[in-house]
Amino acid sequence: MLTFKKKIKKPKENKIIKKPKENKIIKKPKENYKRINREINKCHEIALKVNRLIDSDIDFTIYGWINKVSRIINISPQKTRNWIEKNYPKILGNCYKRNNYHSRLLD
Fold it and tell me: How far is CA 63 from CA 10, 67, 92, in A?
């Protein structure tokens, strides 16, 4: 049979309790500069992609505009519409939208 012995901590009798100093300067928490720089770079990249979209002569009212935009943004055509909805929804006002089979069934 195995038995386990518990260690019992004995209280220290000569323990000195230190009081905090009143003149102590409180340090502010450090900001995570790497995270902030990463967010700034991400916003900058999005702004550059949006500017390229605006400068391009893509007609958003015709079929196939998503493939052209996906080449400019460098993402897949399946994710392009969601990216535009999130980052620059002004474009989607009068763009071409295909008719889904499911949407026709619901009508």
Answer: 80, 9, 14
Write the pLDDT tens digit of every residue in 28-62. Answer: 666 778 888 889 999 999 999 999 999 998 998 99
What is the model's pTM? 0.59
- 8 Å CB contact between 57 and 50: no
Give the Å distances, CA to CA, from 29 to 20, 21, 24, 32, 33. Answer: 19, 20, 15, 9, 12
Distances (CA, A) of 71 to 26, 82, 87: 52, 15, 16
**Which tokens is 75 given?**
């993402």
